[in-house]
Design goal:
globular; alpha/beta; 12 helices; 9 strands; two-stranded antiparallel sheet; 48% helix
Length: 325
C-alpha cells in the first residue's frame, strides 16, 4: 500500500516537539524510514537490528546476559539465534513506529488479526460498564499494538515511561498518539489510569520492566527474582477491573502481518493485604513469562530486567550501572 501522509494538523504537531539534538535526529530518522516502501522498510529494519546484534553494539551484551539467565540449559547457538532475531524485531518495530500517523489506519487493521475477542466481550459484561486492564509487555511490535487495536475499534489508553530527553520523548509521544491511542506517562499516571477505568476505557499496562526497590515487588521471573512495579497490581485490586493478558505476535513467515492474542482474564487472589498483593504480582508476571517462553525472539532482551535484586544479592553483570530505571 502506498504511503499516506499525515494531515497538516498532525504534521504541525510533530514539528512542535521540543527541540533537542536527539529529538531532531529521531524526527529525521522516522521520516526517512516512513518514506521507504513497506516491504523494503521492514527488510531494512531487520537488517539493521541483525547487524547491531552481530557487531556487539550497545545492549547486546546485556541481552546475552539475560538469555543465559532465562535459558541456562540452551545451547549457546540457540540463545544467539534468539538474540539476533530479537534485535531484528526491534528494527522492524522502529520502522512500524515511523508508520504511525503516516499510513492509512485501515492498513493497520488489515494487517493485524485479533484472537480472543470473546474474552473481551466476557470481560466487558463482567465489568458492567467499567473499564478493562490489558496486561501487556514490550513484545513484538508493541508500538503498533495500541494503534492496531484503535484501528479495530478498541481505543486504548496506554501507560508509557517518559524518556529522559524531553525532545526525544516529545517526538515519540506525538508519533504514538498519531496512531489513534491515548497515553499516560508512567510515574504520575495513577489518577489518569483510575479515571480511564471509571470512564469505561481499555487501559494497557506494560508489566515487564525493572522497577526500583522502593516502588516494586520482587517476584520470580524465569527462576530469578525480578522487581515489578506495584502500581498496576494495586490498581487492579482496588478497582476490580478484569485483567486480560494481550500481546502482539508477528506472524511467522510474514513480517508484514501480526496476531493480537487476547488471553482470558486472570484470576486474581482476593483480599487487600500484602500477601494478596504479592501473589497477584506473581500471577501477572507468570502471564508475561508464559508468552515470552512461547515466542522468546519477540521479547525485548536488551532491557536490564533483573537489575533490582533482593538485599545482598548482586545484580547480573550488565554493561554499566544506571541511576534511572
Amino acid at each position: 500500500m502506498p504511503a499516506q501522509t499525515v494531515s497538516a494538523g498532525s504534521a504541525a504537531d510533530l514539528a512542535a516537539a521540543p527541540a533537542s539534538s536527539r529529538g531532531r535526529a529521531a524526527r529525521a530518522l522516522l521520516r526517512g524510514l516512513a518514506a521507504l516502501p513497506d516491504h523494503a522498510g521492514l527488510a531494512f529494519g531487520a537488517a539493521l537490528g541483525r547487524g547491531w546484534a552481530r557487531l556487539g553494539l550497545p545492549r547486546v551484551r546485556d541481552a546475552r546476559v539475560n538469555l543465559r539467565i532465562a535459558f541456562p540449559h540452551w545451547k549457546e547457538a540457540e540463545r544467539e539465534r534468539v538474540l539476533v532475531e530479537s534485535f531484528a524485531g526491534l528494527g522492524r518495530s522502529l520502522v512500524e513506529l515511523a508508520w504511525l500517523g503516516r499510513r492509512d489506519p485501515r492498513m493497520l487493521a488489515a494487517r493485524v488479526e485479533i484472537e480472543g475477542l470473546q474474552n473481551v466481550e466476557a470481560a466487558r459484561e463482567r465489568a458492567a460498564g467499567a473499564g478493562l486492564i490489558v496486561l501487556t509487555a514490550h513484545f513484538g511490535s508493541w508500538e503498533m499494538f495500541a494503534a492496531a487495536m484503535a484501528a479495530h475499534g478498541f481505543p486504548i489508553v496506554a501507560v508509557q515511561r517518559a524518556r529522559d530527553d524531553a525532545g526525544l520523548d516529545g517526538v515519540l509521544q506525538q508519533r504514538r498518539r498519531s496512531g489513534g491511542a491515548s497515553y499516560l506517562k508512567r510515574g504520575n499516571a495513577g489518577l489518569g489510569a483510575l479515571l480511564a477505568l471509571r470512564r469505561g476505557n481499555v487501559l494497557a499496562l506494560p508489566f515487564d520492566q525493572n522497577a526500583r526497590a522502593q516502588d516494586g515487588l520482587l517476584v520470580p521471573f524465569f527462576g530469578r527474582y525480578a522487581c515489578v512495579n506495584a502500581g498496576p497490581v494495586r490498581l487492579a485490586m482496588a478497582t476490580g477491573a478484569p485483567v486480560l493478558p494481550a500481546f502482539l505476535h508477528r506472524a511467522r513467515g510474514d513480517p508484514m502481518r501480526h496476531v493480537a492474542r487476547i488471553r482470558a482474564p486472570l484470576v486474581l487472589a482476593e483480599g487487600d493485604g500484602e500477601a494478596a498483593l504479592l501473589e497477584n504480582a506473581r500471577r501477572m508476571t507468570r502471564a508475561i513469562e508464559r508468552e515470552v517462553r512461547e515466542a522468546p525472539e519477540m521479547w525485548i532482551w536488551p532491557h536490564r530486567r533483573w537489575r533490582t535484586q533482593p538485599p545482598g544479592e548482586p545484580p547480573p553483570p550488565y554493561r554499566r550501572a544506571r541511576a534511572k530505571y
